[in-house]
Amino acid sequence: MSWQAYVDTNLVGTGKIAQAAIHGHSGQVWATSVGFSVNSSEVQTLVAAFTDPSPLRASGLHLGGVKYIALKCDERSIYAKKGADGAVCVKTNQAVLIGIYKEPVQPGEATKVVEALADYLISVSYVSNLNMAFPHFVALARI
User: Fold this and answer.
1) Predicted TM-score of the model (pTM)
2) Which end of the chain is more exposed for a tag (fewer CB within 10 A), N or C?
């Protein structure tokens, strides 16, 4: 399955994510949904925030030129909000998954989608050394 297919099918295709992207840690675009552009500077700031979230907490998270307020920041996941909309970002060893959700989607619904794709990618050892299994995504990967 191509990176674009993961964005189109496993993220945006769920109906819970309005816009999505997969970027490498240095900012390069692996795949993105139509009309969504996160520049390399925004990605580099995002990747750095997984280690030190203090700048993000002070200045907000910028994705696609939109400023979000950071709610949760740890070494794996960053969650942010702007009004009723928000962002879910998950880091793996090689990539960052970015999902933007819009009202009426609830934060937990969007989080489940992005985190599950990250867990699947980790389980097949493609973008991480962690060993977790989410077999419901295996069928999608074989399509």
Assistant:
1) 0.87
2) C
